[in-house]
Amino acid sequence: MSRAVLSLGANLGDRAATLAEALEALAADGLVARSALFETPPWGPVEQPAYLNAVALVDGPHDAAGWLARAHELEQAAGRTREVRWGARTLDVDVVTVEADGAAVLSDDPVLTLPHPRAHERAFVLVPWASVDPAAVLPGHGPVADLLAALPREEVDAVIRWEPRP
Ligand SMILES: Nc1ncnc2c1ncn2[C@@H]1O[C@H](COP(=O)(O)OP(=O)(O)OP(=O)(O)O)[C@@H](O)[C@H]1O
Ligand SMILES: Nc1nc2c(c(=O)[nH]1)N=C(CO)CN2
C-alpha cells in the first residue's frame, strides 16, 4: 500500500474522454481525489497542441514500481506509442510522488525518479495538484503553494480550468 500523486496529460484525440477513462480506471486503484481538467500550453521545446491536464491522488495496493506500471498500462490502454521526448501524446501519466509508511519514497533511478524531477517547475502539475490538496508538499522542494508563487505569473495564469462546451 502506498499513496501517490499522479499527473495525467493528453493533447491528441478526444483529450477529455481519454482523461475521463483513465481517471475512471484509477477508481479500482484507490482513487482518493482528482482535480478538474485544466487546459495548459505545451511545456518544453516541442511545438504541439495544447494539453488537458489533471492530477489524481491515489491510495492503493501498489508500491512505487507498481504505480509506474499502472501509469504505463493506462497509457497503453489509451493507444499511446513511444514517440518524441516531450512530444504530443494521447495520454501521458507521470508519477509525481509516492509516500509509503508515512515517508516520501526517494529514487534517482532513471526508470523511476521520485519525486518526478521536473514536477516542481511545471504549472500544469502544480496548479491541479494545489486545487485538490492546497497543503501539498513536494518532497525536497517544499509546499506546492510556494513553488507556484515562485513560477512566472504568466505560466500559472495560463493553466485554465476547462469545461466541455455546452
Ligand atoms: N516519476 C516518473 N514518472 C513517470 N515516468 C518516469 C518517472 N521517472 C522516470 N520515468 C521514466 O521516464 C520514461 C519516459 O517517460 P515519458 O515518455 O512519460 O517521458 P516524457 O513524458 O516525455 O517526459 P517527462 O518525464 O519530462 O514528463 C519512462 O519510461 C519512465 O521509466
Ligand atoms: N502542458 C503540458 N505540456 C507537456 C505535457 C503535459 O502533460 N502538459 N507533457 C509533456 C510530455 O512530456 C510535454 N509537455
From TrEMBL:
It holds the Pfam family HPPK. GO terms for biological process: folic acid biosynthetic process; tetrahydrofolate biosynthetic process. Pathway: Cofactor biosynthesis; tetrahydrofolate biosynthesis; 2-amino-4-hydroxy-6-hydroxymethyl-7,8-dihydropteridine diphosphate from 7,8-dihydroneopterin triphosphate: step 4/4. The lineage of its organism: Bacteria, Bacillati, Actinomycetota, Actinomycetes, Geodermatophilales. GO terms for molecular function: 2-amino-4-hydroxy-6-hydroxymethyldihydropteridine diphosphokinase activity; ATP binding; kinase activity. Coiled coil: none annotated. Residues 85-96 form the 7,8-dihydro-6-hydroxymethylpterin-pyrophosphokinase domain. It catalyses: 6-hydroxymethyl-7,8-dihydropterin + ATP = (7,8-dihydropterin-6-yl)methyl diphosphate + AMP + H(+). Keywords: ATP-binding, Folate biosynthesis, Kinase, Nucleotide-binding, Transferase. It comes from Trujillonella endophytica. InterPro entries: Hppk, Hppk_sf. This is 2-amino-4-hydroxy-6-hydroxymethyldihydropteridine diphosphokinase. It comes from the Bacteria. Transmembrane segments: none annotated. Its EC number is 2.7.6.3. The keyword Nucleotide-binding applies.
